[in-house]
Amino acid sequence: MAQKQSSKNNNTSQAVIEKLPESEVKLTVTVPKEVFEEHVKDVINQYGQEIKLDGFRSGKVPAKIIERTVGSEKILHEGAEEAVKKAYVNVILDEKIGAIGEPKIQIVKIARGNDFKFTAIVGVLPDVKFKKWRDDVKRINEKFKKKEIKVDESEVDKEVAFLAKQRAKIITVNRGAKEDDQVEVDFDASQDNIVLENGTAKKQLIVIGEKRFVPGFEEKLIGMKAGDEKEFDLTFPKEYHAKHLAGKNVTFNVKVNLVQERQIPEINDEFASGIGKFKDLSELKKNIHKGIEHEQKQKVKDEQKREIIDAITEKTELDVPEVLINREIETMMAELESDIGRINLNKQQYFEQLKTTEEKLKEQWRRDQAPKRVKAALAVQEIAKENEITSETKEIEEEMNKILQYYKSLGQAEDKLDSKRLFEATKGNLINKKVFQYLMKI
Hints:
A hairpin with a 2-residue loop joins strand 1 (8-10) and strand 2. By secondary structure, the chain is an alpha+beta fold. The protein has three domains: 8-124, Alpha-Beta Plaits (2-Layer Sandwich), CATH 3.30.70; 168-263, Chitinase A, domain 3; 278-439, Orthogonal Bundle (Trigger factor, domain 2), CATH 1.10.3120. 49% of the residues lie in helices and 21% in strands.
């Protein structure tokens, strides 16, 4: 059952506030007839400035003629719109209601010479209640304190070898391709003599042995010279990311344009000094060791954060408002579009590969991930409030400047950014960072 609160006086309007399930409130607002009449007169006056009639000076058309010209019903309802805007905002501010999203407005009573009455149903930030979570977080922190960060020297050697391959000299040769050669090819992929969508490539560079292409493709190039052509069939892996090709047989027609030998430099002190400001190979390896160690520490820290927020979320009780779930789903979709854009796919191609639709994926998120993400965000927000964790304007602006410099480096115009939204987002990120710093010290 919804709990009804007592009527509140909001300067000129009366408001009854009723709590509804799922973090919503219903406001029943009564605007006194005198105040409502003022809103109607304001509408008439606005039309009076716009209407031009023969025999009347601009702005001097009588109210009755304006009403007859515009229509009394139209004026009445526009007056109601103004009354709703004013009264609704006043109630929200005076009663300190944490409204989120747009309200659902319904007019209950409207007539000249009478009090004006309407209802507004709006989502509100829910009350966050915690069960005891500190012991859980403490146990997680103790577990991660015992985790050792150890860099295997083979990882360092692997990175050095990668750097050497990146600096290989490329020399075109007149012989058959072999392991470690770079080969430029044109090809098309087809099924039943029909070329697949996105199944054609020109001047594709492939390093034989790196295994970055369909399994078996690189091996088929061994022995081919510039100008050679070959047709062969390959079966795609059952776990292939493009589901419509997984486990399927595909025919490739390949032409080799160039065979190039990759002369990899010898890994020694001279090589190290050519990479950067390193006096010898030992110093380069120490730098790489430090970088890998930093990555591992960050990975462990991220894992610790995930476990902490999962533990706290499990001990958090709240009704997740629908409006916040919808916002989170839109955020998740924007993140997905950004991710698939990095692998040169669009949404349609991505959903075709997964054999699903955007609507189905959003519905799946609505049942699970989106509510969890909202719940976690509200829990962090409540912890910040309880512990008075805030961010000063100065540090927010400093962080904003870093972000703006980054956008400038990408050639994006600063004036296209919403500064108010950027400020709020930066503030939120800084507070979240401080909350996790606090949690990880418990």
